[in-house]
Request: fold
Amino acid sequence: MENSNSETKQAVARKAFEYLNSKLHKDCILGIGTGSTTNFFIQELIEHKPEIKAIVSSSLASSKLIEEAGLEVSELNDVGAPDFYIDGADEINDRFEMIKGGGGALTREKIIATASKKFICICDSSKKVKMLGKFPVAVEVIPMARSYVARQMVVKGGSPEYRVGFVSDNGNQIIDVRNLKLSVPYDFENEINNIPGVVANGIFAARKADYLVIDKNGVPEILEQ
Ligand code: 5RP
Reply:
């Protein structure tokens, strides 16, 4: 049965931390994502304070949580490739391709995920889908290109909607695009990226997750690609 509640999110985050904790050491660099599930993972980090070299974060919101607890957040430019990146998803398929960006942090998430050696996705089973695309694909755009990109998305069969009042951590705007036929997410991800004015989009197919921590029959389990 599908589950989408705080207890389940906390359980998968805890399971991911337990799994990771045994692999962490003083030279490890951890990448931290954004969202309610990741926040539970941040709680584990704060509680256990593992001895690691650096933490990088995909959003101002996550950085704030981490720093308020007295842990340091480093710039990706100042550290090497993160050993692990931990983040949630809005949808994930059997190949561990995802739609992300519900929280609008997709660009920094994609940068850190792609720079990282291993990507551990943590989510509850309501996020598991056969085919991606029911959840809208967030497209971060340079503000002056918003209408142009939206029209291009209509040409591709999508129904774009401007996320009114939202400004990304990078100072950009977001269009949420519904009704895209994502049978080959990798191709669509690249197609959207090729539209001038697009900064990044929420399809994570070029950089999929390596591990998925998800609940099954109420118990969190770790799946590997
Ligand atoms: C933010 C994201 C999040 O990972 C995604 O929205 C899942 O969030 P939550 O854990 O709150 O369900 O991509 O940009």
